Amino acid sequence: MTYEIIPATETLLAEVEVWLDAEEAAHKAGEAAYVANGYEGDVPARGFRCNWDTTKKLWRERGGIDILVVDGEAVGFQGHGIFEIRPDLRRKGYGRILAEFMIARATDEGWSVFEIGIAPSTAEPFWQSMGFTIVDARPDRGAGTFAFRILPREFALGSGERIPFVIEFFTNDERYESVPRPFSTFSGQGERLADGSIQLPARAYCFNPLKEVSMNDFVRLEVDGKELHFEKLKRDASAAIGVERDGGYTYFVDRIRPTS
Questions:
Q1: Mean predicted lDDT score pLDDT of the chain
Q2: Quick one: 168 exposed, middle or buried, by C-beta within 10 A (0-12, 13-18, 19+)?
Q3: 198, 163 in Cβ contact below 8 A?
């Protein structure tokens, strides 16, 4: 077997569309038989043909689809929130190849968290095997079951002075409670660098598995027991002290830059 994952072309998309059409036809036929049989039996899973025209339009506007080609055939694709392997070639390791490619690229691009929606639910065991955590309690908003995988970032510290730090993230509503409770906390010992900044041993990221993070949520930074910052993520003051945003739109802190 020889394979490659390459950017989509019109020819490859047309090849994918052939098996998406066949999958959709099988689903509709199975659904009709299910109804005719008094709602007994199994219905073949529905693929992503219903999303395909929109996905192609997005690709023609800005690219963003990758195709898994095995022995010259387009057997899978991913892009714009869709991931699928040709139905007759599932459970042969191709999904893992394509998923590992997606995760590696997100890691290379500096993402902190990889978030996905899983549909149909029969795909959940596969994504769990790829290291994703399923969160049934989070509304799917039509995108399938929410799941995520943390992409950790660790940093080697030097011999500089060790400084204790605490970084906490709060929802906008929680910030105004009498005793606000963070939805995520990171703490430890960072290294004070020559310019006065504090290098963390690992990335602190703003992620709430139960709710989508808003730029109006808050971040609190404490260094050596002193609160330095408690402000909205989107504020310029937050960026100045070290809050950044990665390619997956997750706010994070790798280094605290005291501003006074």
A1: 94
A2: buried
A3: yes
The residue type found at 65 is I
User: What tens digit of pLDDT does each residue of 164-203 get?
Assistant: 999 999 999 999 999 999 999 999 999 999 999 999 999 9
Q: State which of 90, 111, 137 marks the end of a domain.
A: 90
Residue 229 lies inside a defined structural domain of this protein: yes
Residue 26: domain span:
3-90
Read off the DSSP letter of residue 159: S
pTM: 0.89
Query: DSSP string spanning 165-227?
Result: EEEEEE-HHHHTSSS---SEEEEEEEEE-TTS-EEEEEEEE---TTS---TTSEEEEEETTEE
Half-sphere exposure of 37 (CA within 13 A, CB side): 11
Q: Which of 73, 90, 107 is the last residue of a domain?
A: 90
On the CB side of 258, how many CA atoms lie within 13 Å of its CA? 17
Q: Can you tell me whether residue 82 is helix, strand or coil?
A: strand
- pLDDT per position as a tens digit, 109-164: 999 999 999 988 889 999 999 999 999 988 776 778 999 999 999 999 999 999 99
Q: Which tokens go with 180?
A: 């606000």
> What angle, 0 to 180 degrees and rounded to 10, lies between the N-to-C axes of helices 10-36 and 49-62?
160
And the tokens for 16? 């994918």
The answer to whether residue 136 is domain-embedded is no
Tokens 């098996």 correspond to what residue? 19
Percent of the chain surpassing pLDDT 70: 99
For the chain, how far is it from start to end, CA to CA, in angstroms?
60
- Residue 260: which pLDDT band, with cuts at 50, 70 and 90? low
